Amino acid sequence: MLFSARYANNLQEKDRILLIDVNPLKPVTKIVPPTDQQLPNESQRLWQGVTTSILSKDYNQATNVKQEIEERQRTKAAERKANNTQWHPRFFTAATEPPGRPQLTPEGRAALDRLHNNDWRLDPAKEYGAF
After folding, report:
1. How far is CA 69 from CA 56, 121, 123, in A?
2. What is the pLDDT of residue 3?
3. How confident is the model at residue 34 (pLDDT cuts 50, 70, 90)?
4. Nearest Cα to Cα of residue 44 among 56, 59, 28, 33
5. At what angle do helices 48-55 and 59-82 cross, to 10 degrees?
6. Is the dihedral of CA 28, 34, 39, 45 positive or negative?
7. What is the pTM of this model?
8. 3-class state of residue 92 by DSSP
9. What is the widest separation between alpha-carbon atoms in the chain?
10. pLDDT tier for residue 120 given thresholds of 50, 70 and 90
């Protein structure tokens, strides 16, 4: 991979510098719990209807399911705003807090430690964004 693909075509071969060779790299297989063991807000479970519809090429249904999820998220956000309740991420601090990138919360650290021991169980959340 060159410094910038945009400028690579304008460079002489002798001036090109290889920064990193990604060719030998392989994607890492995701290790996730079965869908029925995931919490209702976990990405694969939450978006399963959209994924299934896309894979069956039923794009209208995929759009409908996606819109339902997003509308539930908007409704929950409006409820929080009306109740003057602020959303707090469960596993990470906000990226806007110092040092400018997300940090693990104590609950996030505990979950990560369990994952390293092949234990992916999570306690249900106190509040879900879309339920």
Report:
1. 19, 24, 22
2. 47
3. confident
4. 33
5. 160
6. positive
7. 0.67
8. strand
9. 63
10. confident
The answer to whether 19 and 3 are in contact (CB under 8 A) is yes
Torsion of CA 74, 77, 78, 80, to 10 degrees: 160
Residue spans of the domains in the chain: they are 5-93
In whole angstroms, give the CA distance from residue 83 to residue 61.
33
Tell me how far apart the alpha carbons of residues 74 and 25 are, in angstroms, rounded to a whole number. Answer: 39
Side chain identity, residue 96: T
State which CATH number among 3.30.70.3490, 3.40.50.1780, 1.10.10.10, 3.40.50.1220 fits the domain covering 5-93: 3.30.70.3490
**pLDDT mean across residues, the chain:** 85
- Count of all residues that appear for the chain in the document: 131
Type of residue numbered 27: P
> Mean pLDDT throughout 11-24?
84
- List the one residue out of 73, 72, 108 whose CA is nearest residue 90: 108
